[in-house]
Amino acid sequence: MSVLIFVETDEGALKKSAFEAVNYGAKVAQQLGTSATALALGAVNGGELEKLGNYGAAKVLHAADEKLNEPVIQAYASAIAQAAEQEGSQVVIFSKSSLSDGVASRVAARLQAGMAANVISLPETSGGFVVKRSIFTGKAFANSEITTEKKVLSLKKNTFAIEETGGSAAVEAFSPSLSDADFAVRVKGVEKATGDVLLPEAERVVSGGRGLKGPENWNLVEDLAKALGAATACSKPVSDADWRPHHEHVGQTGIKISPNLYIAIGISGAIQHLAGVNSSKVIVVINKDPEAPFFKAADYGIVGDAFEVVPKITEAVKALD
Ligand code: FAD
């Protein structure tokens, strides 16, 4: 018996969500009186997987087959389900992402496991197996019981603290048996989105709205984001007007994010925008209208003209280095 955690990588390095998921998985394993095994697929930089021992993994499986360097959903689902069977895993854990959204449900189907997505709590295991989930874009919670013997959980990102445990883990080679059918849909190429920091993964996000007047002023957002090591985002009308690419649009109809810091510049704070950002840990709002609704959701607010305020903040952040 074990708890299996699928860990995602980006260009060979573990994503932050991998550490979060392994930490969580180790706690679930402890609750169930078993151990946590992490699983990585495809190329991973040397020394990366060993780190997972310090976050609670007792063992790390690595399928280094180069065909798995591409994130092929069918093949990933097949490999993860085989690892779960090999390890006798009672619980399989993912961190929610565009990749795991496709993979986790397929793994659940293969294992005939019940699945819960957007999980935001450790399971309550006294009378069953109940997890709290964030639903309706964070406006409500559901307590969901999984009654099947095997369970698949997909965690809401940036929800759980990442703690070092001081442990170590052996990395073992894992060789799933994969057929051509597993690779029926191949990834032909991956184009990197703009910006150095990926928005769904970002711990800090600087976001701009219609208050910035036009795309020619986006250097304000980009300069502050660069100084903070943050990703850039925008409101819907901004991407609708092609000031910014659609993959930067956050909100009800865009990406949902929960960074540690969200800075909203010239964004009014409409409910549809808040739906995508209101689980950010700290929200800073810069708006020249003191009545802007966003101030009600803000931890810190600056009433002022973005064109005056933001360059000063950027300079102050740069001066910290
Ligand atoms: P505005 O509402 O025009 O606000 C601009 C703000 O900038 C104002 O508060 C103004 O005071 C401030 N400002 C102006 N000049 C300055 C200055 N110089 N300095 C500082 N502040 C300044 N929106 C989303 O963002 N994401 C979504 O996913 C989304 N989904 C939607 C789904 C539906 C079904 C619908 C109906 C709407 C959706 N919307 C969404 C749109 C949403 O309702 C708002 O219209 C939108 O969020 C407003 O964008 P904004 O704040 O950039 O622009």
Automatic annotation (TrEMBL):
Q: Which GO terms describe its biological process?
A: fatty acid beta-oxidation using acyl-CoA dehydrogenase
GO MF terms held by the record: electron transfer activity; flavin adenine dinucleotide binding
- Residue ranges annotated for the Electron transfer flavoprotein alpha/beta-subunit N-terminal domain, each copy included: 3-187
Q: Which top-rank group of organisms is this from?
A: Bacteria
Pfam families (UniProt xref): ETF (PF01012), ETF_alpha (PF00766)
Residues noted as binding FAD in the record, renumbered to the chain: R210, G266, I267, S268, G269, A270, I271, Q272, H273, N287
Q: Which family does it belong to?
A: Belongs to the ETF alpha-subunit/FixB family.
Question: What is this protein identified as?
Answer: Electron transfer flavoprotein alpha subunit
